[in-house]
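Summary for the steering committee. One of the milestones for this cycle was to obtain a three-dimensional model of the protein with zinc ion bound, which we needed before selecting residues for the alanine scan. The sequence and ligand used are listed below.
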Amino acid sequence: MIKRDYYEVLGVAKGSSEENIRKAFRKKALEFHPDRNKHPNAENQFKEVNEAYQVLIDPKLREKYDRFGHEGLKQDQGFARDFEGFDIFGGLGDVFDSFFGDFSGHSRRTVRRGADIRQSVTLEFDEAYKGAEKEVELQRTEKCELCKGSGGKPGSTPVTCSTCKGNGQVQRAQKGLFGQFIQVVACSSCKGEGSLIQNPCNQCKGGGLERRQSRIVVRIPAGIESGMQVRVTGEGHSAPKRGGSGDLYIDVKVKPHKVFRREGVDLFLDLNLNFVEVTLGTKVDIPTMTGTQSLKIPPGTQPGTVFRNKGKGMPSLRNLKNGDILIQVNLKIPTSLRSEQKRALEELAETMNWKNGEVE
Ligand SMILES: [Zn+2]
Ligand SMILES: [Zn+2]
């Protein structure tokens, strides 16, 4: 049989990036997958695609192939490698396991895990300060209520699979790129479960799963920041049978505060004062996250001065300490003055003997 050019098989250009090769392979593999494509030639084409991919994705093999063509790969007898990253196949997982599962020959019994769920939650700034419990509504796959996920009619017991004798996997001779090798694959009769359901549950038709709308309460820790993620273990989609659940990831958004600007655990506040207040000194009420606090501005405070209200900032997620509130003094200058006010300032300048920007 004449071998086709590997690049042609995958439908990529010769200099294609690894990523493009991977993409092309996934597309072709799905197209010719014998489970989806019933054409008698599909399996052969699938194998051809698989072989092309194995070579082109391996930099050493690809280089040899580029230089010497199919001839160049002749010495690579017994080449075998594990395949990674087939997560995208999701539902086809069982079948893909049997194709790519275990080229090295040791057993790998996979118990499938449900998919993760991502959801976003928006918090008021105050909730980020105190921590919050938020209710989230999820559309997710859960274990069937009636059969508790077993897939069997309540009261019935599953029988041991005769194909794999309950092991969930079988050995299969597979013709590979360079000869035959033995592969341990998930049993196709029982889909790796080791047992078969004879009386399927009426509610889930034996799948053990059903789609449900659920509300769960998620604890958001105090100190959380916009852009952070909270992971809730086991609250994702359920997997069939004995498989565990995926996780729930909450993307957190925090609304900005009216007056504070947050940087890490510290809060920044602009405090506007007028010329007389900074010159003579004053007392002002400044906001905190729990109320207000009085701050003494000493006479002669310069604009730009920063006062620190220690421990009144945001709680840290790492330790139990809080950050600070940093209050920066802004000098506000009047923009319109009545004539007697102007005169008063001119008199002041005169008594101070201010000239050319001098102050004292
Ligand atoms: Zn059921
Ligand atoms: Zn079986």
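Key point for the committee: The chain has three domains: 6-112, 117-149+208-254, 261-352.
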